[in-house]
């Protein structure tokens, strides 16, 4: 039933999403490019996997639950991201361990579901879907993609808003080679 996610492409996309976390562990400027890369990565995954958003039976509640779970993970990751201003007043951000763990946990959970669905858990998922009036694999795909989108977008909105607060971040002194503090 759920063989849609048992592809090399799924593994590659998830690996790219995890690599985005590694990229965010290093401190970098909070600019449009840095905010756009994760959105583009999840958007590409959505274009690749999301062909419809089923709305029959309990598909919409499933999709809302998954999107809500993604938003909670994204909010926690956004609040756990370390932000500071440099000497020039530019906002710098770095994902801490909690933020990175939330991202990797979300990607890992979706990947584990896909692997399980393709390697023996498919009949159990089908029985669950029938019992709970979920119409099929397209609903699961939509729900998992919405979870990823909500995770990324919520995290980025929170980071962006935190970085825009004028008094919310203190400038951190930067040691120059001559030992002078900026």
Write up what this structure looks like:
This protein has 182 residues and is mainly alpha-helical. The protein has 6 helices and 3 strands. It has helices at 8-25, 32-49, 59-80, 97-118, 122-131, 137-164, and strands spanning 28-29, 81-85, 91-95. The chain has a 3-stranded antiparallel sheet with strand order 1-3-2. Helix 2 (32-49) runs antiparallel to helix 6 (137-164). The protein is elongated and about 60 Å long. It starts with 7 loop residues before the first helix and ends in an 18-residue tail after the last helix. Residues 1-6 and 173-182 have low confidence and may be disordered.
Could you provide a short overview of the structure?
Helix content is 65%, strand content 7%. The protein is mainly alpha-helical.
Low-confidence stretches: 1-6, 173-182
How many strands appear in the DSSP assignment?
3
Largest sheet: 3 strands, antiparallel
Span between termini? 61 Å
What is the element string, with H for helices and E for strands? HEHHEEHHH
> What percent of the residues sit in helical stretches (DSSP H or I)?
55-70%
Structural class, from helix and strand content?
Answer: mainly alpha
Average of the residue pLDDT scores: 80
Strand content: 5-15%
Topology:
Elements: H1 8-25, E1 28-29, H2 32-49, H3 59-80, E2 81-85, E3 91-95, H4 97-118, H5 122-131, H6 137-164
Antiparallel strand pairs: 1-3, 2-3
Helix pairs in contact: 1-2, 1-4, 2-6, 3-4, 3-6, 4-6
